[in-house]
Write a structure and sequence with these properties.
Distance between the termini: 12 Å
Number of strands: 2
Strand content: 35-45%
Largest sheet: 2 strands, antiparallel
Oligomer: single chain
Radius of gyration: 21 Å
Length: 71
């Protein structure tokens, strides 16, 4: 089980190092006056610091290396 968690953390850490964030579009209502509705697309972004991916990668390597082999 710990080897699986370690492997997941390693993969997640590498992904977070390569892609430091993403953007998405959200439709927001600007005016809602009875039958009249006006909405606009707003672009939102989610970013994380690169060291977070590095910490996950290092933690995953440590967990993976110290886990006992099953079987």
């Amino acid at each position: 089980m710990n080897r699986t968690v370690g492997l997941i953390l390693i993969v997640l850490g590498v992904v977070m190092l390569v892609w430091t964030g993403f953007t998405y579009t959200k439709k927001e209502k600007i005016v809602d006056a009875g039958p009249i509705q006006i909405s606009a697309d707003k672009e939102k972004s989610v970013n994380w610091p690169p060291y977070a991916g590095g910490l996950l990668l290092i933690g995953g390597i440590i967990i993976f290396a110290t886990a006992k082999k099953s079987g």
